[in-house]
């Protein structure tokens, strides 16, 4: 066996060391976020059209400058998390009148860049770890570097890729659903062992091998924050073992009234699985929030977005999703994608605050919010809704940035 280092541990998968989790450090950025009864996250519109397939005019933009402004705005309002979506699309994105998602900034690189212009908010880079020649050494080193750039405010939203056509862009074929999670589990275990940094690591597994591997410097709070998005048994099993934050979709479509009765059992699956392993996870969900001074104004705006649905883009989006093997979004309507989001929360500030309280009561620990016209709607949410969340005990007051 070759190698320049004098010592090495040749370990089996069962013996791979694990670092301390960031939530176990009282002063970690993750622990501060977890102290909030209801975490607030912003889903960044790093792609053309953001999250809504509608032609109604708005100012939402995919540019880095615009997303920098939004992230700093959210940070000043006390938001806890910001991250974006990862997709790999052909020329023209999903097409339609809007060329939906034609331009798409990489969410990992964007999050690293945002770390240099923020001070408090957690940033996560979404990444498909199974596409291309990724090796755990790459991600372990990249995340440790981003962790130091951000002073412990960085993490990865690890996804396995459900789409049928994405792997072929990398010269690959899509692996079977549960096999992808098995490979991701080994990937994450190796990263954890490298972050633990007990010794040079030699390991030969089912998917990856390393010889005398080491990563330094190690992350500030044990390891970077880890998140995953899933709705399947295999995905929930993975999340219960490795993730701090679990991003779920609605099990009953975008209407909140339909989702609320089913969410408690859905959320309990992953929380109970984590508890059985002596761990705690926080569960977040993505609502698109439409809030106006009155209920009538909010629903009129909602209907206007729906009336301008980009049907061509919606059709292409629906076809692509149906060809994949995702077990999320199964009950969502195609037309609802004009507004976007896993849930639609609509109403006056008081009504929106009440709906968020209902989500929290159903077991949701945080919301990853999307807006239609981001900048003014984020500002109004901060002005009109956050004070009501504080009054309801769902948010602890956060000092503005200075």
TrEMBL record:
Domain of life: Bacteria
Pfam families membership: Bac_luciferase
Keywords recorded for this protein, A-Z: Flavoprotein, FMN, Monooxygenase, Oxidoreductase
Residues in Luciferase-like domain copies: 40-365
Renumbered residue ranges of the record's region Disordered: 1-27
InterPro entries the record matches: Luciferase-like_dom, Luciferase-like_sf, SsuD_RutA_monooxygenase
UniProt biased composition (Polar residues): 1-12
PANTHER family (UniProt xref): ALKANESULFONATE MONOOXYGENASE, ALKANESULFONATE MONOOXYGENASE-RELATED
Protein name (Swiss-Prot/TrEMBL): Luciferase-like domain-containing protein
